[in-house]
Amino acid sequence: MTSTRPGSRPSGPVTRTGGPLPVDNRALLDGAAVAWLSLDGEPAGAVLLRDPLRHDAPRTLRHLRAAGIRRLLMLTGDRAAPAEEVAAVLGLDEVRAELSPADKVAAVRAEREHAVTVMVGDGVNDAPALAAADIGVAMAARGSTASSEAADIVLTTDRVDRLADAVVIAQRARRIAVQSALGGMLLSLAAMAAAAVGLLAPAAGALLQEGIDVAVILNALRALRVGQGAHPAVTPAAEALIHRFADEHHDLQDVLDAVRDTADRLSDAPGPAALTALEETHRLLVERLLPHEYAEEHELYPALAPTLGGPEATATMSRAHTEIERLSRRIATHLELAHAHGGLAPGQLDDLRSCLYGLDTVLRLHFTQEEENYFSLAP
């Protein structure tokens, strides 16, 4: 089980209360909280606050299930709507929202009646539930001292995928320990049986026992060997590229916002101002977004291919690059037609809005997939 970390981040710029989608409706659709802003006592706008999903969470949960964790729950004090959205994205078995610390303890104790239970948390509110679980895991990098003191295991990095690594390491260590103990005992029993019937002289038996001990110790030492954990290892060059393109994703958020805002403007008032906005959006696509996608295709993906098992692993993401370029070219063609006819024709608006909204959807999905599947490979 896991709980969302406290704190929220703004999901976008200040939003007007008027326009195509009122703030309350936008907050409901996005699962966001609203912070209203006022100027001289009058409402001036609002900021939508969302708690973003950790990029490494989907990979972590996949590996936890592969490691034998059968049931995954989310216990959170947050509202039900964003919690259910997170649960749907991660494929959780159950989500329980708007819980108090006492409710979390009760939920953990109920799960303990069915199986060994692991609780993961990072806040003060999680400390009682961590203590109540069979195994409590605290995220100490940003968590509280109380949760760290209540937990059995403390992860010192702010990465959930280290939990999957810990499970894999523990399972491997236990398997090696069982192999060494059983193997050593069986070999010793066989040697004693042979000595008992006179097939093994005392001196030879003593030497054989020493050999058995050495073999068992060498087998146990395999636990010290660092294997591939829950996430594939990347080369230093690939890791540098991941950090570079992750930073570019952050810098390109204003381009994504411009695409969506221009589509909204075409729906609201398709006049000269809308054409100007469309021209600015096209400039951002050509000068900033498309070079980023091209560099990903020709630098990042080839660098990640050996880690991911070959170029086929990035084939679907490459198809998204093609679609982004196709929609950008279509928008450019609409601009050429508008310049040729002195403005946007009514017959262009439906297809142009479709291109912009489609591009917005593809870009946001593509960015999320890259962040979860590729960028989460690097610390």
UniProtKB/TrEMBL annotation:
Where's it mainly located? membrane
Which superkingdom?
Bacteria
InterPro entries assigned to the protein according to its UniProt record, in alphabetical order: ATPase_P-typ_cyto_dom_N, Cation_Transport_ATPase_IB, HAD-like_sf, HAD_sf, Hemerythrin-like, P_typ_ATPase
The transmembrane segments are 181-201
Region annotation (Disordered) ranges? 1-23
What keywords tag this UniProt record? Membrane, Transmembrane, Transmembrane helix
Q: Where in the cell is it found?
A: Membrane
Domain named Hemerythrin-like: which ranges?
Answer: 241-377
Answer yes or no on keyword Cell inner membrane: no
Question: Per the similarity annotation, which family is this?
Answer: Belongs to the cation transport ATPase (P-type) (TC 3.A.3) family. Type IB subfamily.
Protein name stated in the entry: Hemerythrin-like domain-containing protein
UniProt source species: Streptomyces asoensis
